[in-house]
Known about the structure:
Order of helices and strands: HHHHHEEHH
CATH architecture of the domain at 89-187: Orthogonal Bundle
Helix content: 55-70%
Strand order of the largest sheet: 1-2
Distance between the termini: 64 Å
CATH topology of the domain at 89-187: Cd81 Antigen, Extracellular Domain, Chain: A
Largest sheet: 2 strands, antiparallel
Mean pLDDT: 80
Membrane topology: Multi-pass membrane protein
Subcellular location: Membrane
Keywords: Membrane, Transmembrane, Transmembrane helix
Structural class: mainly alpha
Strand content: under 5%
Radius of gyration: 25 Å
Family: Belongs to the tetraspanin (TM4SF) family.
Oligomer: single chain
Protein name: Tetraspanin
CATH class of the domain at 89-187: Mainly Alpha
Number of helices: 7
Amino acid sequence: xxxxxxxxxxxxxxxxxxxxxxxxxxxxxxxxxxxxxxxxxxxxxxxxxxxxxxxxxxxxxxxxxxxxxxxxxxxxxxxxxxxxxxxxxxxxxxxxxxxxxxxxxxxxxxxxxxxxxxxxxxxxxxxxxxxxxxxxxxxxxxxxxxxxxxxxxxxxxxxxxxxxxxxxxxxxxxxxxxxxxxxxxxxxxxxxxxxxxxxxxxxxxxxxxxxxxxxxxxxxxxxxxx
Length: 226
């Protein structure tokens, strides 16, 4: 994936991305060590597997607490990131293509426009140069734009060759409200998945301890009595 420019990054989002990358790498290593330790009955690897699981579980709990207690700060930083993305959105900019496609996908799937609302797009340099007679296609609620989910669409019959966001056939809901609504509607599913993952991790920790004890018992019985 292409990297976002410096002005479109934030410390919290960067930290979150690095944590996710670290957890993903640790999970792959953990799975390999767990399989190797269980097949060959190597106690130290099973112990390392247990430690990795415990670290991942603690990290997940800590991340959840940070998100809960710092949600307003994260919301402000995300608002700044999205604001810069909208301001500099350019369908011809290949360097930022991946990031722009991701934002178009969000607007299309959630049926929203802008972060706080469609007015955010009035800061876009290209739309300003076109006197607001075009609008982001991914915001459209018009049937004629159903098969266009990126770039800009031209407004039909603008008055005196100019327009405002109020003249656009776009969704009124901002994506901030749309995302919050989606999270509330799917809160049960999200909590269920998180709980299921935590239970599986706990079972893995219990299983690794049990295998370590069994290996220790077998090693003890193999020791010749004097």
